[in-house]
Write a structure and sequence with these properties.
Blueprint: E1 28-34, H1 39-53, H2 60-80, E2 85-93, E3 96-103, H3 123-130, E4 133-138, E5 146-152
Antiparallel strand pairs: 1-2, 2-3, 3-5, 4-5
Helix pairs in contact: 1-2, 2-3
Amino acid sequence: MTSSTAARRPIVHHYPHPPHPPPGRPPRAVLDLGAVPTAPGCARAWTRQVLWEWRLADLSDTAELIVSELTTNAMVTSRREGRSFIRLTLNFDQGELAILVRDFCHSTPQPGNAGADDENGRGLFLVQAMSDRSGWYPTGDDTPGKVVWAVARPE
């Protein structure tokens, strides 16, 4: 019979609800992503986890759709410009979730003119329909690009 001298680890307790964010400071999370085809899927999964930690899981479906559309657009345009990454930021303040996606494309975001059979060109229309408000602004620094944003509120 063999015996083990390995020390036992303390028991890890499972808590079904994550801790609350620090008091007095609105929650904010930032994720840098490569401008690669897997970026939108990673952004959706990360967003779901962050919203669960912030106890905003009821916003996950809406937020994931918005994140998916904005990160897909940013990934495509940043790749076209030869830039290697995009940035996703989530802020929750005053009862609103702000989703911001930074890309490196000079052009302004324009809703597509999708026909009935087109697979692309509806992303910004979906973002506008799913969010309370949305828009974009230039980065404000000396680098090319812009930030495209949308705001959603829990029901």
